[in-house]
Amino acid sequence: MTRPNDHREDPQRDLGTDVPHPPGRLLRLADGLDWIISFVTRTVLMISGLALLGLLFANVVARYVMGSGLAFAQELPERLFPFFIVAGIALGAQRGAHMAVEALPEMFGRRGKQAVYVLAQLCVILGNAIVMVVAFQVGNMSWIDLSPVLGLPATYSYFALAGGAALVILATLAITVRLIRIGPEALPIPNPEETGQ
């Protein structure tokens, strides 16, 4: 589905900000949320990704030099990987890069599409709110589940999931605000190279 201004090479295009909209407090709040989410997710992706690569490299070198791998090199990636994944999920949600079925909205006019998209966003918010609460509850119960070498509790992985769900909620709230104030044209449009289209 093509939308106006799809041809522009604007880095903000995927956030839905290329759609002209009247200034307003809610839209400025949505733009601010997008900036914060983008900064947090990119930072977490960069730090955890580099740490995972560094650990893998160090473990391979240790195997060749010392004949055995690093004892902690198995545990740390298990604790870092959830942060890497949930940051990617939140960034994908913000950019509209997750799988979507567009058959239902296409059956309606502009107002109907807007209503369907807003309802879909509210379902995403509700689902992620449930994930966030349950992950936080399980995380609070898993302080005693310690890794054998470093003694790290499994709780951090659950807290990463809860934090990722919170970021998806915030990203979806920003999208919902734009959908309500602007209309269906405000949906984020992912870059084709990011979605494999």
Task: Give the low-pLDDT segments.
Answer: 1-17
Biggest β-sheet, characterized?
none
Query: How many DSSP-defined strands?
Result: 0
Instruction: Compute the separation of the termini in Å.
Output: 12 Å
Order of helices and strands: HHHHH
The share of residues in extended strands comes to under 5%
- The figure for the number of domains is 1
CA gyration radius, whole angstroms: 20 Å
Average pLDDT for all residues? 82
Strand pairing plus helix content: what structural class? Answer: mainly alpha
Number of continuous helical runs = 5
Shape summary = elongated
Helix share of residues? 55-70%
Write a structural description:
The protein is mostly helical. The protein has one domain (23-195). It is 64% helix and 0% strand. It is built from 5 helices and no strands. It has helices spanning 25-66, 75-95, 110-141, 155-181, 192-195. The longest helix has 42 residues, at 25-66. The protein starts with 24 loop residues before the first helix and ends with a helix. Residues 1-17 have low confidence and may be disordered. It is found in: Cell inner membrane. Residues 1-20 are annotated as: Disordered.
